Amino acid sequence: MTSLEKPTEDAQHDSRAVTEAALFEAFGGVRGMVETVVPGLFFVTIFTINKNLHWSAITALAVSLLLVVVRLVMRDTVKHAFSGVFGVAFGVVFAMMTGNAKDFYLPGMLYTLGLALAYIITTLAGVPLIGLILGPVFKENLSWRTRNPGRKKAYTKASWAWGLILLAKCAILFPLYWWANTAQLGWVLIALKIPPFLLAVWLTWVFLAKAPAPIDVFAEMEAEEKAEEERKAAAAAAPAVDREAQGGRHRRDS
């Protein structure tokens, strides 16, 4: 290995590490995935045992609230846990209103379908959703749209991956919503919670790890502000220097 190859490999390793960390931050990591599964797991387990919609729904909501409390006690970020609470709450409301336990899963399924369409539509529009999500995480905002074409290409591929994977998931779940019973739908949905998500995250990581490095627009703004301050300081100091120079000439003339 030559001295020229080593920095390149180190830079690639650092880029992949940053990409992995950013993906975990954006999507909640392992803990966030677990928190999305646990409430639904409690619902389908209790319903499978006693077929009681009210107990199943109340338990799922209580578990999701408990996860938020745990995060608050640990002073951890609660955005992923709160999103889980809202999802479970909508499911509980739907199921209670209709009296159909399968409707507990319907809001989440509709959300998945809407998200799949959002990934596809924004990609076709030239503004891939995954870029809008990860841009601020990488401190590049929307610079990838006009200044980093390789980065935009990676975001486009990743958004297609997310959209198609979520559509495939919907293609399995919606027929089951009509044909299967509540327990069957619930167990299939639990089984499909994490694997498609992991596949989409892995593909995103693969695409971004090979893409050009993000442009840190925040660092650019800080550099511009610092340069502007230095220009103002130099402009303010110039008259004093001129006055001192003129005073020196007067003393020499005298």
UniProtKB/TrEMBL annotation:
Keywords: Membrane, Transmembrane, Transmembrane helix. Residues 229-254 are annotated as: Disordered. Pfam families: DUF3159 (PF11361). It comes from the Bacteria. The chain crosses the membrane at residues 53-74, 81-98, 110-138, 159-179, 185-208. Residues 241-254 have a biased composition (Basic and acidic residues). The keyword Magnesium does not apply. InterPro entries: UCP010219 (IPR016566). The keyword Zinc does not apply. This is DUF3159 domain-containing protein. It comes from Streptomyces gibsoniae.
